Amino acid sequence: MSKRTIEMAVGTAGIDAYGQPIRAPLSVRSQGALALEAPYEPELESDHMLINIGPQHPATHGVLRLVLELDGETVVRCVPHIGYLHCGFEKIGEYRQYNQIIPWTDREDYLNSIGNNVAFVLGAERLFGIEITPRCTVLRVIAMELSRIMSHLVWMGTTCIDIGAFTPFLWLYQERENLYNLLEGWVGARLTTTATRVGGMAAEIPDGWMDGLNAFIRNFPKTLNESDKMLSKNGIWMGRTVGIGALTAEEAINCGMSGAMLRASGVAYDVRKDFPYLDYETYDFDVAVGTSGDVYDRYLVRVEEMRQSIRILEQAVQRLPDGPLNVDDPRVILPPKTKATSQMESMIHHFKLVMEGPRPPIGEVYVPVESPKGEKGYYLVSDGTSKPVRWRIRPPAFVNLSAIPRMVEGHLLSDVIAINASIDIVMGEIDR
Amino acid sequence: MTASLPPYESPVPGSAREAAGLPDPVTPRYIAHQGGPENPSVAALRERFGVAVLRSHVMWGDTTVFVDPKAVHDVIRFLRDDTAHAYNYLVDITAVEYRDTDQPLEVVWHVRSLPWQRFLRIKVELAAGSALEVASVTDLYAAADWLERECYDMFGITFNGHPDLRRILMWDTYNEGHPLRKDFPLRGRFSRAEQLSQALKIDTSGGYSTTELSIAEAFNDLPEDMKQRLRAARAVDPAALALPEDGR
Predict the structure, then answer these.
(1) Positions of CATH 3.30.460.80 in chain B
(2) Is A16 on the interface with B (CB under 8 A)?
(3) In this complex, which of A254, A266, A268 lies closest to B3 when CB atoms are compared?
(4) Is residue A48 part of a domain?
(5) Does domain B15-160 correspond to CATH entry 3.30.460.80?
(6) Chain A residue closest to B14 (CA)?
(7) Which of residues 202-231 of A touch B (CB under 8 A)?
(8) What are phi and psi of A173, to 5 degrees?
(9) Structural domain includes residue A273
(10) SS3 letters for A168-234?
(11) What is the domain extent for residue A230?
(12) Cβ neighbours of residue A339 under 8 Å, at least 6 residues apart?
């Protein structure tokens, strides 16, 4: 009798020390079904296991910590813990002028930084009562849609890694690199763009930039289609995603889901259509809607959103008008540098705007936009001074993540990773 | 989370608006600072709740309605369940404290009607010095769970009826107060030395909260010294809540 046989006898129910099936008595249980009675199987049902995932774990996409109670491999209960990346953005915003808050918006949802910049100044401009120029409107649409594609590329690439596909990750990150090169050419930064100002943009697009964008619009669908082909009909991918973490439409609305999480459940709610901004109602695009609300549908919705973003980009490139970029409003826009260094009035104007900052009237606004994660809104309250009384970020990923116990309970431990990836969390935005 | 699901007519946003023959939403332009068309739900609220609806105004195109703190749960439940309004989507719960300390602290609910494509801001004023308590709406919207916890964490507002009201962004043993209150200094209430010494004192083995340990009843199985360490890590020293003498 070798050592290995003994291990098998201990480890495998129904096999004796000689590697032979145990002659166990067959007994009749519950309405005639035959069951094998294993006399020395340890009693496992009564023990639930507590397992900790994160905060330092690659599959939690940052510093999310999940404490799971497992029955065997099934999740019985899930307790999420957040706040490991809390930086007090909203508190700091109360001590900053409006233009000084824009760099902070880069850093909360850092995969969507330029989209956050646009979202913030849309709120601030409504608070100031400013109407932006037509050229600025179209450039901001381009910025928002590029940002959406960038964020979805990261989401798709990392979700592939989580579920075990490596190749699309490399293809998609290559495209993301192209986009970051475009952004670098425009505003000089890749990740922390700070591309907007109240009343306009930080910079005009450089010469030849549109050629780069056109090349991206031409080439990107090929990459996307190839990656899509790798995954959409892939048996492993479907096995890991179909029917996992499903939410019904009623549940999704009640849980405050937004973005792809809500649309995958069959609710065609898109802020661009329902509460338009930046003239989105004049663009021809469709809202991708799923049916079952599982991880697979969320994936399909996000892929389709990227295609629709390309459609919007094509139209925006066509209609980009000439004209001034910034509004002609000395309350918020600095005088040109040449004037500020040569004329006394302009210098005083420049000094006052930089040191004291523009002052909006007393009031409050909430302006939502459709960020890649969902409905993102900035709630700004002004008491007439140059710094907001309250700067509130409505974080879509925070609310989406709050439903994770509802989604994972009853699924296997390995599905937790797929469900968590499908929420598309960015901890910078959740913890703020 | 035991939020009940509201009456559900159609998953298509804007369905009620289309059925009523209203035009499609467009990007708002040249919005007036104050005044403008008021959200029709406010008139319905006045009719239904009378004096509990204190006042309302339209600012930058959004309607804000101030309601009595005692009535806010009924108001939100009415808005959610009445199909003529159907505010089935909770956007946000937050609070505003003004720099002028005489002004009351405001709790803000942003609710949205997907079928009508309407947006409403509901506010409750909690007078300075009064108890910061309002009713929780977790029984109406599951989304309120974390939003109310965050509001409690940041402002110290108690949401009565919340099933699990504890800190969410700050850690459980955080005892400097509520960071978004205006009397909370930007650098924190404790000195850097005190913050550092508290951080070093945290027992990392107490990483699970006692609630979690009781899930698997593992806490009872722990050795006695570890149990004591965990209890000590959870206990809050009341003296630490007082302001230090240098006022920082």
Answers:
(1) 15-160
(2) no
(3) A254
(4) no
(5) yes
(6) A274
(7) none
(8) -70, -25
(9) yes
(10) HHHHHHHHHHHHHHHHHHHHCCCCCCCCEECCEECCCCCCCHHHHHHHHHHHHHHHHHHHHHHHHCC
(11) 89-395+413-431
(12) A346
pTM: 0.83
| Among chain A residues, CA nearest to B219 | A50
Q: In chain A, how many domains are there?
A: 1
How long is chain B?
248
Residue A161: CATH number of its domain: 1.10.645.10
- Give ipTM to 2 decimals: 0.82
pLDDT digit string (tens) for chain A, length 432 residues: 344 433 333 445 555 556 565 554 444 444 444 444 444 444 555 567 788 887 888 777 888 888 888 877 888 888 888 888 898 899 999 999 999 999 999 998 899 999 999 999 999 999 998 999 999 999 999 999 999 999 999 999 999 988 888 888 999 999 999 999 999 999 988 889 999 999 889 888 999 899 999 999 999 999 999 988 888 888 888 888 888 888 888 889 989 899 899 999 988 899 998 899 999 999 999 998 988 888 999 999 999 999 999 999 999 999 999 989 999 888 888 888 888 889 999 999 999 888 988 999 999 999 999 999 999 999 999 998 999 999 999 999 999 999 998 888 888 888 899 999 999 888 889 988
Which chain A residues have a beta carbon less than 8 Å from that of B34? Answer: 363
Residue of B nearest to A46 (CA): B216
